[in-house]
Design a protein that fits this description.
By secondary structure, the protein is an all-alpha fold. It has a single domain, classed as Four Helix Bundle (Hemerythrin (Met), subunit A). The chain has eight helices and no strands. Helix 2 packs antiparallel against helix 3 (about 50-75) and helix 4 packs antiparallel against helix 5. The protein is globular.
Length: about 200
């Protein structure tokens, strides 16, 4: 919902990091490191190490933002890098709630996890093909001057909201079932928003 408004402030915050030793790294190295840290957060959640999981999740999100800033400021942007970033993001988005559900070990948690992942599946279909159609119509991220590879209409749950909700999941593992259910409902509403947008604009 607020991702577009946060992109430029995020770029300004991360840019100083790129002026240091990190500048020598290839953006893909940062992308893979972000995924490794995200998977470590999922493993920590599985083991019930709440504070460690939250810290690793925060580090994953910083690294995930840093790879794009590094690519832009060093002229190393590539389609492969952007594609890998999205795929590995989704790996982490799956792994963290999976780790939490396995740690809970309750049928209700597994059912809530299934609903959450199903909502992600629907949401992915709602925005990925829409992004491709916007690129086809020369109305994508580059045409709009956006600091991202693909564009999509705004929705209730985007990157920023996901960061907040996952942090809450990690901090309150005892409330997984209602929390997973809440996010699943919000994600389905987001997919519905994009379907309505598509019906009006395509």
């Amino acid at each position: 919902m607020i991702d577009k408004a946060l992109r430029e402030p995020k770029e300004s915050l991360l840019a100083p990091l790129v002026r240091g030793p990190i500048r020598r790294l290839h953006p893909t190295v940062v992308t893979v490191a972000a995924a490794a840290v995200g998977l470590a957060a999922a493993a920590a959640a599985w083991q019930g190490a709440t504070l460690l999981a939250v810290g690793l999740w925060a580090a994953n999100r910083v690294l995930d933002g840093l790879d794009g800033t590094l690519a832009r400021l060093t002229g190393q942007q590539s389609d492969l890098g952007a594609y890998l970033d999205i795929v590995l993001d989704h790996v982490v988005y799956i792994a963290v709630p999976l780790g939490l559900a396995v740690a809970a070990g309750m049928p209700a948690a597994y059912l809530a996890l299934a609903l959450l992942l199903a909502s992600f599946y629907l949401n992915g279909a709602s925005w990925m093909y829409l992004a491709a159609l916007l690129e086809k119509r020369n109305a994508g991220a580059r045409a709009r001057g956006e600091l991202t590879t693909v564009t999509m209409p705004a929705g209730l749950v985007e990157g920023a909201e996901t960061v907040v909700l996952y942090t809450i999941f990690l901090l309150f593992p005892g409330a997984l079932v209602p929390l997973f259910g809440l996010m699943a409902a919000l994600v389905v509403l987001t997919a519905g928003q994009r379907l309505l947008w598509a019906a009006r604009n395509l």
